[in-house]
Design brief:
CATH topology of the domain at 261-551 in chain A: Rossmann fold
Radius of gyration of chain A: 31 Å
Strand content of chain A: 15-25%
CATH class of the domain at 261-551 in chain A: Alpha Beta
Organism (chains A, B): Allomesorhizobium camelthorni
CATH architecture of the domain at 261-551 in chain A: 3-Layer(aba) Sandwich
Oligomer: homodimer
Strand order of the largest sheet of chain A: 19-18-21-20-22-23-24
CATH superfamily of the domain at 261-551 in chain A: Succinyl-CoA synthetase domains
Number of helices of chain A: 23
Pfam families (chains A, B): ATP-grasp_5, CoA_binding_2, Ligase_CoA_2, Succ_CoA_lig
Structural class of chain A: alpha/beta
Number of strands of chain A: 30
Low-confidence stretches of chain A: 1-14, 515-522
Protein name (chains A, B): CoA-binding protein
Family (chains A, B): In the N-terminal section; belongs to the acetate CoA ligase alpha subunit family.
GO molecular function (chains A, B): acetate-CoA ligase (ADP-forming) activity; ATP binding; metal ion binding
């Protein structure tokens, strides 16, 4: 052991990382058939990526150890170096806080004795002598490989309490510096990093830097399966990883096939906006799925060509029928399948031969019933002929702007700008019922079912470039390829809000999801963090998904964070304020001049400030004046209205005046989000509907839902970098 | 300093506490004009109440200190004893981990030097020499005095991270042993007490015991304002308070007047179920409040006597009018005020002279507009004449079983078993609108407004003994007397569910509440914990309050924790499972025989287990068979149904069959809670209404609300000790 064994700590600058050094280490490990790095190997890897570690060296004798200790400086830590021993502490292979030559010498011998007792015959390569770090905040920087999301970097505080509280945050790797900084604020205990009880704040740059470097390392080397820097000592000056654990897995992961972006767009356009649709299994017989599909196509008003396919019939519902898609003279864009599972594969081959772009596989009887082989067969046919598959096990889909109801469910034709999808048929039916009941205009409703091929990110890619769609809302139970979804969602959500209800959030829900679709539900915290990283608005419940889908598209994008509540009912004001906090909305601190301006319009015992409490017995004029002021003043960015039903200002009077003022301002080029909570007798239901129909999301008997809808719009605007 | 100064630690048994010893300490402090106890005084108090503290003694010289250290055993802690120094560490007055005679001797001198530097002239009584505790889990046991709830005992883990996470739990003092044990499970980091990473679990009995003793101490001595045992070392054997801090406040707190239970019941019965009502300010003129009240009384169908009071009129709406209540020949139970604020006091005096039980003070213009004097005047008149005051600043109240609408709002007459109240008029109007819209039967709706007298606990006391009321739901922004509320709620909730929406949960909401009612909103965590301790169901939103009020009364009380989901839509099953976890419901682990029994009724590809997924295309018989089995099997205690709209089993067919099976089972004496989530086209709305009207809380397009309603019922049943 010589002096050159003592590496000086690497400097955390942005120099290019030394990939070849890491490659060399990994090759050695692979050659030796190991799956974990030793501490010195871990140090080499860290050095190569500029991840700072303590001064250290490896000793092969007690004398060596003493010499090294003097070089790195007391106190030191001693750790066994043995490829076979992963849990060094358990093996008695770690000693900390050794302050003298004597301590180090004795310590060396005792570690060797411990390890030999723990695992006779373990190959011992020496003892690492390391600078002992103290002070600062102990944190963990780590990495995991998720089956759906791939490489993720993780961050949390060190210590057992954090483990108990599961206070860890994840980001897709590689993480940007901004991602890394957001992780420091993304744990419950974030305040600990800012310095508490007079302690110094950590150096955020240094800590973010180490996170970025770890994320880059694991992205560059997919064979790194797991990584733990635990603890990292984060002080006001630096962040140094005191212990490095790296586990590798050289088994290649199956690559998931992804068509090119152009191919997805081209195919999805033909599927979603087809000029010609074949119905395989079309039927004249009431009650048959193939009959319902035909009726929906015809009665829905679809203007393209419909080709009924039936082995025997010459015509179905007055339209010429064909025995096979191959007999159809013209081009076909999409084929809707309404035949039993066992006939699907053969018909799909014929679709392939006919060069049809997409197959809408309504039939069930595949993966969801355990028939995995049957589903794999369809996937193989689809790949072979380059047909995209929707389903199987779905209700089909709607694309309203083409008057297209390619489904066996009831028709739906209220055109609008939100596209919805669901993994489950039941949830799809709830979407249709809610849409009809709330008169919610949609551009599309799509069933994804078993997702043998087309999934959420294919839909996002289509809706991204679909001018009829401004907002996308999706229900899912799993993401087959979370990474692809996140990448697409991040891009799309910069332009259009993406709302997701992820079912199976809880372990009980995840178990149910497993039995339902055969999909392994991921760790919910990972979904939570990746959704945020991707700018996705997360709905917490089915009603949230539906309410956000209805409200977000009609709200203009806010130009800033300042929210003001104007309320006739003080009690609503309190509940609306609660809801603002819960939904991350910022109640504007009312400037004095604006406060005075509001006071001019309200009774002397009303409360200005924020909420502006205009009090209950006021005439329409008071609502009018205050709402107008709220819209006119440039410092205010959004309004929340709390209405209280009185004889003096009845519900519809209130609703009409709000819309009038809104339109008056719009004519002057002023557009701000307005939501309303209406407290009153049943007439407030009609008033709420009127407001909603005129661009103001409004709810009777609820203070929390309108604010949640506004909160969803803000979540999106922030994620898209618009605020 | 002699050996007898060395107290042996007291033994934590249940011997009677020595109140006189505490009294003596407190009297000395009062006499000396201090507001905090010294460490030795704290120890005396702890000893008197059997709260274990370390072995220790007070030294007046370095030599004394060394001698004491040898007696308590090394290592020791030294702490300054000085009445003027509260923050000992800051003053350099604490040294820990002294292991030798020499350390102790030097330490004594350095502490004295530090403290003299910190505060020249501070009176130094000596240095405490204390057994140093190590190991185990550091926790905090404390006590605070809340303006509304009075004495509260607090518990949390020690350390700065817990402070950052605000992970502390409270109970009203005195706390029972069960209360104390529930505190150990009431913090987020509860698992830390159970032993993690191989550490031993704390002795729960010992820890609960110290909590109970602290809670008893602060209850016995109201002058103890705050108390901190921080840290308490909790090991697997014992719990010892290493540091004691007690702050006292000898200023007497104003006692809040509370009528006797009998008096409240008698008066409230006369007010809520009156035989004769006077309307002060009755009017024939449309649009006047006194006219609306008259119309509501007459048109609402009130069968008692109505006395219009008006200074000039001889009759109003065909009923003989009087100039004053004093002119009325018969008895009057309650007077409804519909006159301007300035005339209220005089009319109230006349009510007093007439011996009327209650005044319903609709007029505004009192505390809510800053007119505190006016409100105090009314309170004084009320006390003088023993009239109970409802309001002022309210909409009045309804008591449907007497057809009584003593309000200026619209009439409401759907009789039912839930009584609602609101502090705010706006929320009251939302209650009325929702009730009418949802056809929710109510026993009463009451406005409490400024709560100058009658408040939530008076209502609880009335509804407790009111046979027409089975469930009580209240909206409040503050509790003027949280302790009285908690005591009454605890008693009442053992018989009838009590649901509370506490507005002003967040600091923004609390600020709004302050400007609205002049009430100081309390710390929300205290409300949370006290509500739980009192068996109160907490609603998180206005809709929750209304949905719970509607659903909880019609659900039978569950006989156990086993919940089973039966669903036609697998996707709903996943979301329903999520909702179960969120609402603290236990999905029953399905026994093999029961699993087999369910499988007999469902397709082979359906999923048994829990959720029971009967799959989407099933006929009515499948729902029927599985629901019947779910009700018949004694191991299942509650059912959650997930319906999926299909042509084979349309919504109303499903709804009718569920009600049929339910009635069939009821005839056999089987009653279990059933809730339903309906996914489908708009017909599911009618089906949901039918189900609700027949005892099954059911919601279209929502998986979370029906489960939340069931969760509310369970929360109550557990709190009432029925599970």
């Amino acid at each position: 052991m010589t002096d050159e064994a003592l590496k000086t700590r690497s400097v955390g600058t942005d120099e290019a990382s030394d990939r070849s050094a890491v490659r060399k280490v990994l090759e050695k490990i692979k050659a030796e058939g190991r799956n974990a790095l030793t501490a010195p190997e871990g140090k080499l890897v860290c050095d190569a990526y500029g991840i700072r570690v303590p001064r250290e060296g490896a000793a092969r004798s007690a004398a060596d150890a003493v010499k090294l200790a003097e070089q790195v400086g007391f106190p030191v830590v001693l750790k066994i170096v043995s490829p076979g021993i992963l849990h060094k502490t358990e093996a008695g292979g770690v000693l900390v806080g050794l302050k003298s030559r004597e301590d180090v010498s004795k310590g060396y011998d005792s570690i060797l004795a411990n390890v030999k007792r723990y695992k006779a015959g373990a190959k011992i390569e020496g003892v690492q002598v390391q600078q002992m770090l103290t002070g600062g905040q102990e944190v963990i920087v780590g990495a995991v490989t998720d089956p759906s999301f791939g490489k993720l970097v993780a961050f949390g505080l060190g210590g057992v309490l954090v483990e108990v509280l599961k206070d860890v945050t994840f980001r897709l790797a590689p993480a940007s510096k901004d991602d890394a900084l957001s992780m420091l604020d993304g744990i419950q205990a974030a305040e600990m990093l800012k310095g508490v009880r007079g302690g110094a704040a950590v150096n955020r740059d240094a800590l973010a830097d180490i996170i970025v470097r770890v994320s880059r390392l694991i992205s560059d080397f997919p064979e790194i399966d797991e990584m733990d820097l635990n603890p990292v000592f984060a002080t006001d000056r630096e962040a140094i990883a005191a212990d490095v654990r790296i586990v590798v897995d050289f088994a290649p992961r199956p690559e998931r096939y992804r068509p090119s972006h152009e191919d997805i767009v081209a195919k999805m356009n033909r599927i979603m906006k087809p000029d010609a649709v074949a119905v395989i299994g079309a039927s004249s017989e009431d009650g048959k799925i193939g009959n319902s599909v035909m009726k929906n196509l015809i009665n829905g008003g679809y203007q393209g060509t419909i080709y009924p396919i039936h082995p025997k019939a010459d015509e179905i519902m007055g339209i010429e029928a064909y025995k096979s898609v191959k007999d159809v003279p013209g081009e076909i864009d999409v084929a809707v399948f309404a035949i039993p599972a066992k006939f699907v594969a053969q018909a799909l081959i014929e679709c392939g031969e006919k060069k049809i772009s997409g197959a809408v596989l309504i039939p069930s009887g595949f993966a969801e019933t355990g028939n995995l082989e049957g589903q794999t067969e369809l996937q193989e046919i689809g790949r072979k002929y380059n047909i995209r598959l929707m389903g199987p096990n779905i209700y089909g889909f709607y694309y309203t702007h083409k008057n297209l109801c390619a489904t066996f469910c009831t028709a739906y034709d209220v055109k609008g700008s939100v596209a919805l999808s669901s993994q489950s048929g039941g949830i799809g039916m709830a979407i249709i019922g809610f849409s009809r009941s709330a008169k919610m205009g949609v551009s599309a409703i799509v069933g994804l079912g078993n997702k043998s091929d087309i999934d959420e990110d294919d839909l996002l890619t289509f809706f991204e470039q679909d001018d009829n769609t401004h907002v996308i809302a999706q229900h899912c139970e799993d993401l087959k390829d979370g990474r692809a979804f996140a990448e697409v969602a991040k891009r799309v959500s910069n332009k259009k809000p993406v709302i997701v209800l992820k079912a199976g959030r809880t372990s009980a829900g995840a178990r149910a999801a497993t039995s339902h679709t055969g999909a392994l539900a991921g760790n919910d915290k990972i979904y939570e963090d990746v959704f945020r990283q991707s700018g996705v608005i997360r709905a917490r419940s089915l009603r949230d998904l539906l309410d956000f889908a209805r409200g977000v598209p009609i709200l203009p994008t806010p130009k800033g964070e300042n929210v003001v509540i104007i309320t006739g009912a003080g009690g609503s004001g309190v509940l609306l304020s609660d809801a603002c906090v819960e939904n991350g909305l910022k109640l504007m601190a009312m400037p004095d001049d604006l406060d005075q301006a509001f006071r001019k319009f309200i009774p002397p015992f009303g409360a200005a400030g924020n909420p502006v409490d205009i009090t209950g017995g006021e005439p329409p004029k008071t609502y009018q004046n205050t709402v107008r002021l709220g819209l006119e003043d440039k410092r205010i960015h959004s309004l929340i209205l709390g209405y209280w039903h009185t004889i003096i200002t009845p519900p519809m009077v209130f609703a009409r005046l709000v819309v009038e003022v809104k339109e008056e301002m719009k004519a002057k080029g002023i557009e701000k989000p307005i939501v309303a909570s209406l407290a009153g007798d049943v007439e407030v239901e009609e008033a709420s509907e009127y407001l909603y129909a005129n661009g103001v999301p409004a709810y009777p008997y609820s203070t929390e839902i309108p604010v949640a809808v506004l909160g969803a719009k803000y979540t999106w605007a922030r994620g898209a970098g618009l605020l």
